[in-house]
Amino acid sequence: MKALKIVFSVLGLVFTVVLGLIFFLGYMFSAGTHGSIKGYEYAVSKENLEDAIKKVILENNSLYRSLQDTLDLNPNKEYYNNGAYIRLYIIAPDTFSYIFRFAGDEENWKNNLKRSEIFICYAYDHDGNGGSEGGGGVEWYRWGVKKKLIKTFEDNFVSKLDEQLAIKHLDRE
Known about the structure:
The protein is α+β, with helices and mostly antiparallel strands. It has five helices and seven strands.
């Protein structure tokens, strides 16, 4: 009986070390991308979606972008203001911070006039909880944080975007 306990202890230790090594290597060799917390697809061109986003932000006091973010900056100087990414702050009543982007690239935007998509890359609540799905902070097992960040984004921004475009978005995971 004692020998059986020792065998199971050793096997458990080996299993734990191998599992830890697999997770460590997976983390070390991952691409390091931000991933997508959640996406929203619209049956409009990227240009129309972008215009609607600007209008929604301008017309709602609970939504804002910093002055620096609203300036036309050289894309080489500010990565998150290069036409694909948008930084947005939502006051609901605490301040939440988001960086979302348009799916695709410039070539795709020019050729696809009937479909466009935005997705949340980074999201933080007022306490600094959050991050990205690919880079950490909004992993699947932190469902409470993810749920709160998505709900705030949808209630205060996506719903207004749907109204502005007069169409309902399709959810993308």
